[in-house]
Amino acid sequence: MRRIALTALFPATAVFSAVFALATHAQEPRKGGTLRMTAPYGTTFSGLDIHTSVRAQDGIWAKAVHRTLFSWDSAKNEIVGELVANVTTSADGVTHTLKLRNDAFFHHGRPLSADDVIYSLNRLMDAKKAYAGARWARFIKGAADVEKGTTPTMEGLKKIDDLTVEMTLTAKGNPGFYFYNDNTAIYPKELADTPEFLQKPIGLGPFKFVEHVPSSRMVTERFDKFYKPVHLDKVIIAIMSEAPARDIAFRNKEVDISILGPAQYVAYSEDPVLKTGIIEVAEVFTRIMGMNPAHKPFADKRVRQAINHAIDTDLIVKRLSKNKAYRAVSWLPLTSPAFDKDRKSYAFDQDKAKKLLADAGYKDGFEFEWTTSQNESWGLPIVEAVIPMLAKVGIKVTVKQIEASVLADTIRKGEFQAYIWSNQTGPDPLATLGCFYSTMPQQNCNYTTFKNTAYDKLIDAARAESDPAKIIALLKQADGILYDEAPVWFFNYNKAAMAFQPWVKGLQPNATELTHQYPELIWVTDQSPVK
Amino acid sequence: MFSFAIRRILQTIPTILAVVLLIFILFNIIPGSAISGMGEDGRGMDQRVAERMRKQLGLDDPIHTRFIAYVSKLAVGDFGTSFKTSEPVTTMIAKRIWPTLQLVFASMLFAVVIGVPLGFIAALKPGSIVDSASIVAAVSGLSLPKFWFGLLLMYLFALKLNWLPSFGYGDGNLKYLILPAVTLGVSPMALFARTTRAAVLEIMHADYVRTARSKGMSETRVVTWHVMRNALVLIITTIGLQFGSLMGQAVVVEKLFSWPGLGSLLVDSVTQRDIPAVQGTILVIVLFFLAVNTLVDLLYAVIDPRIKYS
Q1: 3-class DSSP assignment, residue B196
Q2: How far is residue A463's CA from residue A457's CA, in Å, rounded to a whole number?
Q3: Phi/psi at B86 (nearest 5 deg)?
Q4: Residues whose CB is less than 8 angstroms from the CB of residue A420 and which lie 6 or more positions away in sequence, other chains included
Q5: In this complex, which of A240, A251, A444 lies closest to B258 when CB atoms are compared?
Q6: How far apart are CA A415 and CA A410, in angstroms?
Q7: Least CB-CB distance to A130: which of B52, B168, B258?
Q8: Which residue in chain B is spatially nearest to A217 when comparing CA positions?
Q9: Is 0.90 surpassed by the pTM of this model?
Q10: Is A198 on the interface with B (CB under 8 A)?
Q11: How far is A132 from chain B (nearest CA, A)?
Q12: What is the pLDDT of residues B241-292, one digit of tens each?
């Protein structure tokens, strides 16, 4: 057995804007006050059972009320233990002994125990239910048996003592990447399946649930037995899906932090006062146009490369994305440890594009149908800007517009010639690149049915390797193959931007999702209008 | 009267059945499902979980099987269970109907209190400044997009004047209600002003009004006794129609102001294809519309004794 740092696979290579200075530690945090956040991704939360959710919207309140085994440290840009105090990993990297912290309490006063962890992870695989968090619990040995209903408990979870759990995975891996996700939160085993729990969740988080007014707000208040210092008295999350309404509320000082869309980002960046209160981060999302090789021209690498050369991506990022995005180079985003900073993005070169098309036998171009949603950042407006650029090299595009909720299904079923989408590409670079492994089903995440023997070998080697540095080197090479094969048009990496009031301190540039703030780190000065 | 009321209520049954059928078919044939929408923001969804969800929710059952199951439950007042929250739809609706009713009643109050007198005064003094102002207000009110008008109100009364909060429900108190109610009420207010003006103008030139005047009846009595009572039939019809449809129109306003009503529920339920929630919400809106209009039909007889129900 050897002890490994949870963070070994993810060194601090964060790239985030200098606009936000994390100089919040110069002042002593003030105890008290209220933080008024916004939940911008819809008019509701999905419900109060976080195990069922895959929406970013729900992660906002979950960070206040619940806790997971691991968490994301934005300052270090890496996974760290949360409920887990330390991890001991077996030599083969499959079995992990998780020592739980002894000072974690549920909101009803009972201390956390190994039974709660085992119960919660088994719950995710419940054969009678369908919890979204099963995606992560599936990595534990025996999860499939629980899912089939043949056994109530996963073979890979063993209670060693009240505060120790042995977790055996199906393959070598870092459990931190799976169990930092909100939909794997640890529940109190005696309460989680009661009807009251769905109305009033009880967690291990720094704030206790007080009230949920559907489509309007959620109110939480400080939990004094939380295992870290908590500064705020209260966190109020206002559900505000309309960007202009958020803008007015922010300017009117009715909310303390607010995510910015492209139009507001420009306005705030140009305002001498507001621009001093913007936090930015390169999130682990890559926006692309995926190409289906079943559509004959896209089966040829030269055609795919030609498309990357034919589009003036920098211009689109500047004009349409309003610089609220980073130009994409390859699949892995800037914040990934396996991002190759020496690699240059495809140059805008339409002559080269024409030559590549001619070499591939498409001198006179070809046609394809491009499936898109209306999304302003990775949807119809972008497609409309690209169409004339592709027309100049002879490629004619017809647009198929569908709803965002239908787009995901269309892509998973492969019912497209090309699509434009935003894909989560982190924080685990191995899992991210694993999506392009030849045997990965299209419906899971190999949407462009990518197949490449050399690529597979690199992924296999990375999976077998134990040395973090070697893993990174292998993944960089794999990402290089993706760059060369160009199964997609590499458009941009999302730059998330959030405005904050001058009295708010301790915000975190969370590259996994900027709205997901750990509220125990936040405090407000006495300038705050809410006492 | 009583038999008319019973007949009128019975007449709504085919309408309700047609609505139930239409909503069910529509939301079961359009592309996408509660499952397909999951992970739409690029966050992956476990496909095995998705398959289990499909089975659990009965999405793979034939459409007629689903319809029979839905109608059977509906017959005993069970609107089903939300695909997203696992809550009974009736519970979800119960939580949200009061904020929507608050909003609709407040909007209607605003619209009636401003719109009807405005139209009345305009008609009594045709060509006057009041008349011109009422026409301008009516045309503007009808043509203003609610979303934009709501933002303007927020900007003026919250940001610039700092009189009112720009969003939210608070504890349901008045200051939170004013801006959404005015936003929702401006369009019916304009319509009431126009309708009242037109109705009053027409009645003012009716034979019986001329006769009343020629008999020496005072102008005040002519207006209150003859004009107002006769105009009320048309005005109340318009109010009734608007009252019912305001619930549907509240969708945009509730979303803009983070108002926790049925409209907000409907928006997210549609985008997330939470079919039981959509069906339940639309059905409640339709029932409200039918109930208000039935009530208006019954009111006719009270207002105008010439109207007989046989």
Answers
A1: helix
A2: 10
A3: 65, 15
A4: A287, A288, A289, A290, A370, A371, A372, A373, A378, A379, A382, A383, A491
A5: A240
A6: 5
A7: B52
A8: B168
A9: no
A10: yes
A11: 7
A12: 888 788 888 999 999 999 999 998 998 888 888 889 999 999 999 888 888 8
